[in-house]
Amino acid sequence: MPDRPYAARPEGPGELPDARAITVRFARGDREAFAVFYDATFDDALADASRLTGRDEHFCLDTVQDAYLRAAKKLPAMDSWAACRSWLRTAIASSAVDRIRSESARTRRESAHGRQSVRDIESNPELAELLERLQSTLDDRQWHAVRLHIGHGLPLSAVGRAMSLSRDAAHGLVRRGLATLSAGARAEMKGATDDNA
After folding, report:
1. At CA 174, angle to CA 63 and CA 186, rounded to 5?
2. What backbone phi and psi angles, to 5 degrees, belong to 54?
3. What is d(CA 10, CA 81) in angstroms, rounded to the nearest whole number?
4. pLDDT of residue 43
5. 44: in domain
6. Checking CA distances to 176, which of 60, 88, 138, 163 falls within 20 to 30 Å?
7. 50 within domain boundaries
């Protein structure tokens, strides 16, 4: 996370600098570019983690931090801030699954009730609930890609092979699926707010 102020940091979404310029610099390890990227995406990233997992703020903050660590290693140059946020949604979902998996495995070890099956992680009730939430909002192809990637932990290249797609096409399905989930959750929240008004 950024550890010092950045004088040119944007104050609002209308003042964001060019996403491609920032992500190219970010990929080169530029700390100031990371600070701009972080500020431009953090609020949405934390909201996505909360909507996707339903967990407390501490869990969501840790999940988002993991996603930013993934971004520091893998984020490609992006043409828009919408694309950056979409990429982060995928990273957040993967990070959340990894954390839930780790918690479940640790609980099983500590209680000596046996070991978790990595192959069948859907037996974890929390992961099953997350996947069910995804399924109700996605078309069949998006659901299949998300289930393979998030539910079974397959890398995007393996998802692509399983679906006879390129890695990029598989990533697109997962990314669009998570964007659909996020949009659906926002609409539900707005509807609930309107009903209570």
Report:
1. 65
2. 70, 15
3. 13
4. 94
5. yes
6. 60
7. yes
Q: CA angle 18-23-24, nearest 5°?
A: 100
pLDDT at 170 over 50: yes
- Mean pLDDT for the stretch of residues 135-147: 74
How many structural domains compose the chain?
1
Residue type, 15: E
User: Does residue 109 belong to any structural domain of this protein?
Assistant: yes
As a whole number, mean pLDDT of residues 161-168 equals 86
- Two tokens at 32? 């100031």
Q: Model confidence over 29-78: pLDDT tens digits?
A: 899 999 999 999 999 999 999 988 888 899 999 999 999 998 988 899 99
Tokens of 38: 């972080």
pLDDT band, residue 8 (cuts 50/70/90): very low
Tell me the residue length of the chain. 197
